[in-house]
Amino acid sequence: MNKSKRILSGRNLAGSIVLAAAALVPLVLGHSQYNMILATTVMLYAVLATAWNIIGGIGGQFDLAAGAYVGLGAFVTGTLLTRWNITPWLGMLVAGAVAALFAASVGFPLFGFKIRDLWYSLSSSALVEVLRVVFLMWAAVGGPTERYLGGSGSQLYRMRFGTYIPYYYLLLVMLVISLVLVNRIRQSKLGFSLLALGEDEDAAEVLGVNVRASKLKALMIYAFIAGMVGGIYACIYGYIHPSFFATDLSMEVAILGIVGGLGITWGPATAALIFVSMREFLRARLGGEMAGLYLVVYAIVLILVALYQPLGLAPLAMRGIERLKSMMGVKQRGITSAHGK
Amino acid sequence: MIETTVQAIITGVMMGAIYALIALGLSIIFGVMNVVNFAHGDFVMFSMYLTFTIGTLLVWDSVQTPLLTVPIMFVFGLLIYYLIIDRTLGQFWVMQFAATVGLQILMRSAALIIWKGQPRALQYSIIQGSIHIGPFTILTSRLVAAAVSLIVIGGMALFLNKTWAGAAMRAASDDLGAASLMGVNRRRTYGLTFAIGSSLTAVAAALLMSFQQIDPTGGMRFGLLSWCVLALAGLGSLPGLLAAGIIVGITESLAVSFYDPRIRPLAIYAIFILVLWLRPKGLFGRR
Predict the structure, then answer these.
(1) DSSP single-letter state for residue B122
(2) Which residues of chain A make contact with B282, given a CB cutoff of 8 A?
(3) I need a surface site. Which of A270, A276, B45, B181 has the fewest CB within 10 A?
(4) pLDDT tens digit string along A157-201?
(5) Which CATH number is B22's domain given?
(6) Domain of B156, in residue numbers
(7) pLDDT band at residue A337, thresholds of 50, 70 and 90?
(8) Predicted model pTM
(9) Portion 133-192 of A in contact with B at CB < 8 A
(10) Using the beta-carbon criterion (under 8 Å), do A137 and B280 form an inter-chain contact?
């Protein structure tokens, strides 16, 4: 017990150092607008993938609707600001609540009818498309043209900064909150219920796990965070558009969660750091020569990781750390990933 | 009112037959190998671009192109099977998801590089034109496409039921262990299945290209459409697949005629979600 506590605090210490380093990033990159866009994009994906870990990694429900919650959040925040001049600081929270409510109203029947695995993924993926079309046709709120965010008041009130740095810090705060949440959930009753039902739903149900309620809770927490991120997303872009309901984004968030290591607190954020910055780096390097070439390289790396690291990158990294430790004479521990079959 | 309805149903039935053909490859791959191929729609998209290239280079009509595109997609399917899919078998399906989404990004960006991401369409096909029966119009291209779809689906049923390879595929689908003991080579059967599933998209592509254009994002639409038809049909019944395709086609066509063309995807996803809620095994599923 004593030992595990020590290791835990050791890990938290390492995490705190990484986060502190992340907080210093704008000091190093802040002079270049492009680098800050990159860092903000990485942070955005890191938050989404970390939140996805709650439903997808721990709970084993491979949700592909991140784009739906992000889009809803963007539209709620943007519309509140433009219509009623309500500050995005408040709008974000409303956005999170709306996304969570929406997720619950969809999840309630889906989980009730025992739609799982592949079919849950597909129907959540369809949701993104449905919402995109709905907002495309709903002329009062959406429509095919971009709606630029209006509102009056100071920059701070409208959350419209001329630079990316405040958005970066905002997302960093959300990342810390999400990481703490994931860590807390993993050690809570909800977390154990989710782990159990992710492994074998029927068995978990027989053992008295309230499968539907657990899934719903996890889904709502995830949707709330994604909705808030959507609010920030709208402010970063300065407009809202139905294309925010993006299937690509949803897929990518899930992929980051998977290759990062299912249920591992740090996995998805690390995967976001590696993959999103690699993608953007390749885009900058190869984009000029041939549009799409960077995605070819990206896709090949993704396929190779899926084929040769079926448990994701985190176990690989942990094995590396273990080896390092064993070289230094520290005893080995087991390596685990949720649902690694 | 009635005229519009009948017209919509006629159009819907013909489109539905093509939808069934689009979903056929996915249905066989998922049914036999239990492989979740998220890239199926992109196979269709890729085949359509291939059809475009061959049609323009050789000045062939869209309906001639399967002569070349079917073998090409067959070999392509074999390659993908041995390079990627074979290694994901027996693993958690999520890894198949990750690998096939990677494949999806790969094919879409390849299309972006090769065809510059522009929408492409072929010259007027020889099957262009329309037939008028009383107040109703039947587009020849759709009629031919529907007829060919029926023939291909029928041919597939014959293949599955009458040939040894088809029997091997059905056996592998029912019980892979027992099938292996009876002398069915798993890798060869699976490879053949995947290649057939891939080459079927080339047939669908030729028919689609005779009356519509293609852009790199088309893969997403065809992918979800295929899963919708598959969910509606359930696994293991080819007539069921055809019926499901026609149901989707008619629903879509009615929604477009009576409401708004933009609602097309909504109609499809509404069916998809309703079916998953009410009949998770599909309307005609054997299992």
Answers:
(1) P
(2) none
(3) B181
(4) 888 887 888 899 999 999 999 999 998 998 888 888 888 888 888
(5) 1.10.3470
(6) 2-119+139-278
(7) low
(8) 0.86
(9) 133-134, 136-137
(10) no
Sort out which chain B residues have CB atoms less than 8 A from A117's CB and list them: 93
Residue in A280, A254, A277 with CA at minimum distance from that of residue A267: A254
- Do B101 and A109 lie within an 8 Å CB cutoff? no
Is the pLDDT higher at B244 or at B279?
B244
Burial zone of A30 (CB within 10 Å; 0-12 exposed, 13-18 middle, 19+ buried): middle
In chain B, residues with a C-beta closer than 8 Å to the C-beta of A295 are 105-106, 108-109, 112
> What's the total number of domains in chain B?
1
* Cα Dmax for chain A: 66
Count CB atoms within 10 A of the CB of residue A337.
19
- Indicate whether B95 belongs to any domain: yes
Q: Are the beta carbons of A219 and A55 closer than 8 angstroms?
A: yes
Delimit the domains of chain A by residue range. 2-327
Q: Which residue of A has its CA nearest to B269?
A: A126
Q: For residue B24, what pLDDT is reported?
A: 93
Pairing, β A239-240 against β A147-148:
antiparallel
CB-based contact, A62 to chain B, within 8 Å: yes
Q: Using alpha carbons only, what angle is made at residue A46 by residues A127 and B88, rounded to the nearest 5 degrees?
A: 70
A286 touching B (Cβ < 8 Å): no
Residue B137 is classified by DSSP as E
> Residues of B near A (CB-CB distance < 8 A)?
36, 84, 87-88, 91-95, 97-99, 101-106, 108-113, 116-117, 220, 224, 227-228, 231, 260, 262-263, 265-266, 269-270, 272-273, 276-278, 280
| B287 located within any domain | no
3 state SS of A239: strand
Partner-chain residue, chosen from B84, B111, B262, that has the shortest CB–CB distance to A136: B262
Asked if A307 lies within 8 A of B277 by C-beta distance, the reply is no
Handedness of CA B242, B248, B249, B250 (dihedral sign): positive
Domain assignment present for residue B43? The answer is yes
pLDDT at A335: 47
SS3 (DSSP) at B120? strand
Mean pLDDT for A108-112 is 83
Mean local confidence (pLDDT), B27-32 = 90
CB neighbours of residue B133 within 10 Å: 8
B284 backbone dihedrals φ, ψ, rounded to 5°: -120, 15
Distance CA B39, CA A326 (A): 42
Q: How do strand B136-139 and strand B130-133 relate by DSSP bridges?
A: antiparallel
Chain B nearest C-alpha distance from A161 (Å): 33
| Among B84, B109, B265, beta carbon nearest to A303 | B84
- Asked whether residue A296 carries a pLDDT value surpassing 90, the answer given is no
The answer to whether the Cβ–Cβ distance between A126 and B224 falls below 8 Å is yes
Distance from the Cα of B220 to chain A's closest Cα (Å) equals 9
- What span, in angstroms and rounded, lies between the C-alpha atoms of A143 and A134? 9
Judge: B116–A291 Cβ closer than 8 Å, yes or no: yes
| Interface contact flag, B263 A113, Cβ < 8 Å | no
Residues ≥6 apart with Cβ < 8 Å to A279: A294, A295, A298
Under CATH, which architecture does the A2-327 domain have? Orthogonal Bundle (1.10)
Q: Which residue has the tokens 């073998």?
A: B71
